[in-house]
Amino acid sequence: MKESEKKYKKIDPWKLISDAPLTILGSIALVITWPMRYFRDSKDTKLNKKNPKLRIMYSLISITDEYENLSDRELKVACSIFSTPWFQNERSKTILDLQSKIILNSFEENTKILVKYLEPLDDETIFYLRLYCSKKLYGDDAGEIIRDYDDIADFKKRGAEERKSYIEAIIKVHHNTLKGQKIKINNPELFEENEYRKLFENLSAYVSGLYSSIISTDDLSKEFDDLTKNLFEDKDSIYKSAVDANYVADKSLYGGPYHRLFDESHSLGKMWGKIKDAKPDDSRIEEIIAWVNEAAKDLQTTMGLPIVSMEKETFDKMVEFLGPIGINKSDLYDLLTYNIQEVLSVAFLGITTMLPSIKKDKKKLNTLRGVMVASGVFGNPLALIFLLITLVHSMIKGNTKQFKNDLTSKEAILGFTISAVIKYSIDFLGTKAIITVLAILMSLLIVLYFFRHVKKKKINYKKFKKEFIAELENLREMSKAQLDKENIKPLPKS
Questions:
Q1: Which residues, at least 6 apart from 48, have a Cβ–Cβ distance to it below 8 Å?
Q2: Which end of the chain is flanked by fewer CB atoms within 10 Å, N or C?
Q3: DSSP state string for 138-198
Q4: Number of separate helices (H) and strands (E) present in the chain
Q5: What is the pLDDT along the chain (494 residues), one digit of tens a residue?
Q6: Residues 367/410, Cβ–Cβ less than 8 Å
């Protein structure tokens, strides 16, 4: 055992990485493209996530993050660094064992190990590792951790002392992370509180996604609209008369269920103009209150409020143009208007994307973005506006390419697909059928939980079988009686 241990320790983990075929090819490519590096902007801070050493060290420094992105070879290297076992075909057990070793070690032990493997790394890896650690674990506002990170050329010029300070900053990040993990172990109540918070945030992600998908359906969305249609009392007033004046004056022009889109009075801007001019002697506070009240009354209805007002002729031409691709008047009106359910849907999704654990989880965040895209495509204009604002923000920060990659990622496509499946399943099968299916699935989950967790309880399987068959017989008789009652003929055998 001692001999094998000695052999194990003689292996240089970085050599394992360097000897990988892909790494060798990458090195050749680096040599070939080396002259082109002179044409790069010195302030380029794009992280090379293909750098295996950066990924391995970040996982070890963070203790708990991004092990799922490591290949088997890279995970073996990580285990080699901390002398923990590799379990064949058991990644989760391997990772858990490695994390436990890091947490149980002292600060001094971990520092000694990490410094040993940080020092051989090249300047660029050290530079980006510090940036990555700081951004991932401290956020964008980590000024005291990151200093002059936007100029790698300057970093290289500063020499050994600056490199040493960067390694110290990386170790500091690890110390802070390790301290947090040790606090969790020594204070389980805090750990439980954190787990409950994560559970709440994850549940929020699922609920907001499901709610957004349901709001996109035809039948259930109306049911939800009925729940909120009487939140604000609809009373006659001089302000209401002013808003509805065009519609009342010429119903032939502005009449019909879509009149709010054409009457030049129901978009937020046009409505404010009508209310402001309704009374000459009212105060600005009264006007604002009236404006909010009138907007809320219309917002709570199924027809909602238009994003912008338009001419009826323009709307008809749009319907004529979009008709061949399956978009009718109702669909187009829905896309150009919004109601309180659509406001809540976007608000829930937007707030959920800002929750700490969701914000750090790229996969969940992209899934919610896919749900947001689906919501916009299926008739919620506020979702499209939210995405547009996000795009503008990305353009200002210079992350347009990342925004595009996020929206086209497999997680975003999955989120879109799930929303589409939920919508069309409910629309096609009907609400009652979906509720029945959900009830069956819930029953199956309860049964599975029972068989998995109630192991000590003895079950009389013969009795269970007898009672189960009896219930099936009853179900058959009930079905037969129902068919006879409805005079439904069975399908022919052919």
A1: 54, 124, 128
A2: C
A3: H-TT-TTT-SSTT-HHHHHHH-HHHHHHHHHHHHHHHHHHHHHHHHHHH-HHHHHHHHHHH
A4: 28, 2
A5: 455 445 445 566 676 665 554 444 444 444 444 444 433 433 334 445 568 888 898 889 988 888 888 888 899 999 999 999 988 888 888 998 898 899 888 889 999 999 999 988 888 888 888 887 776 665 444 444 444 445 666 667 677 888 888 888 889 888 888 888 877 666 655 555 555 667 777 788 888 888 888 888 877 787 778 777 777 777 888 888 888 888 887 766 666 778 888 888 888 888 998 888 888 888 889 889 989 988 888 888 888 888 888 888 888 888 888 888 888 888 888 888 988 989 999 999 889 888 877 877 788 888 989 999 999 888 889 999 998 998 888 888 777 888 888 888 898 999 999 888 888 888 777 766 667 666 777 777 777 666 665 555 566 667 777 877 877 777 777 767 666 665 655 556 55
A6: no
pTM metric for this prediction: 0.54
User: How many other CB atoms are there within 10 angstroms of residue 165's CB atom?
Assistant: 13
Structure token pair of residue 256: 């019909």
